[in-house]
Amino acid sequence: MLYQGGKLFQCGRNMQCILLCMPSNTLFILITIKLLTCQFSNYKIKHLTDQLYNDWRILKSPQECEIMKTYAAKARLLSLIYSMFYLTACPIYPFTTLTPKILDIVMPLNKSRPIIMPYPAHYFVYDDTEYFYYILFHATIIGTLVLTVLVAHDCVILTYIEHVCGVFAVAGFRFENLVYKHNGKKNDMDKIYNQKIVSSIHVHWRALKFAESLENTFSVSLFMQLLMIIVGTSVTLLQMAVQVENIFEVYRNATFVLAHLIHIFCFSLQGQKLIDHSLKMHDKIYNCSWYKMPMKSQRLLLSVMRRSMQPNMLSAGRIYIFSLKSFMTILQTSMSYFTVLASFQ
C-alpha cells in the first residue's frame, strides 16, 4: 500500500494516471477489509466454528451423518477449486510482465521492447525499471501473501454456507420421516410424534441461528468488499476500452476482471444455495404423510411452515442479496459505471 500510495502521490491531478492505479489499489483495499474482518470478528468466527462442531454432535442416524458428509465433501471440493484458481493462476499475473523480455530473446527487434511493471507503484527510486527484477520478486511474494488472506477468508464463508445447507437438509430429512407405523396406545403415539417433531424443529432452529450469525458476522464486510469489486471492475473495463489496441494490456485487464467475476459468482452461487435450502423446508413438511399424524402434532408443524416461507440469505449490508439473479445486477452496475467513466474520456 505504501508504494501504491507513492504512485498516487506521484500522479498528482493526472486522472489518467489515477485511473491506471485504481484496480490494484481497490484489490489491496479489498484484501485489507478481509484481513480486518478476520481480526475484529475472530470471536464471532470462533463461535460459528464451535456451532459447526456441535451440529455434528446432534446427528442421530447414519443417514444424517451421510447427508452431512456429502455437504462437507462439497465444501472441501469447492474450497480446493477456489484455492487452486487464486493461488496458481493469479500469481502468474505479475510474471506476464516478463513477456517483453522473453520476446526480446525469441524475436529480437532493433531496440528493446518497453518494460512493463507488475503493477502501478512507486518504489522511491529514480528509475523503477532499473530494479525491475527486484520489484517483480517483491510483487510476487506480496501477491501470494495477500491472495492467501483472500482465499482463507472466502473459503471459511463458503464452507459455513455449505454447512448450514447440510443442517437444513438434515432437518428436512427428519421432517420427511416423521410418520411411522404404530400399534400402541394413542397417548403413546402422540408423545412419540411430539418428540420427533421437537427434535426436527430443534435442528431447523439451529440452522436458522447459524444462518443468522453468519449474516451478522460478514454482512457489513461483504458490502464494503462489493463496493471495491464494482469500482475495480468498472475502472478495469475502462482501461480495456482505452488500451484496446494493446493486446497484452487487454489480456491482463481481462484476467483481472475475470478474477473479480469468479469471486462474486462463487458467493452468489452459495447464496442462492442457502436461499433454496431454507425454502425447501416447506416442501419437505408437505412431502411427509402429515395427514396420518394426530391433529395436535399437525399444529406443531404450522409454525415451521410459516417460518420456512421466509428465506434465509447472505447479504452485503442487508442491501445486496447474494443470488444468481443479483449476480447479473452486479454485471449491469459495473457496466453502467464503466459507461459513465468512458463518457468523461
TrEMBL record:
**GO cellular component terms attached to this protein's record:** plasma membrane
Q: Which GO terms describe its molecular function?
A: odorant binding; olfactory receptor activity
Q: What is the protein name for this chain?
A: Odorant receptor
Name the family the entry cites: Belongs to the insect chemoreceptor superfamily. Heteromeric odorant receptor channel (TC 1.A.69) family.
Question: What is the membrane topology noted in the UniProt record heading this document?
Answer: Multi-pass membrane protein
Organism of derivation: Nylanderia fulva
Q: Does the keyword GTP-binding apply?
A: no
Which InterPro entries is this protein grouped with? 7tm6_olfct_rcpt
Which biological process, per GO, is one annotated for this protein?
A: signal transduction
Please tell me where this protein is predominantly located.
Answer: membrane
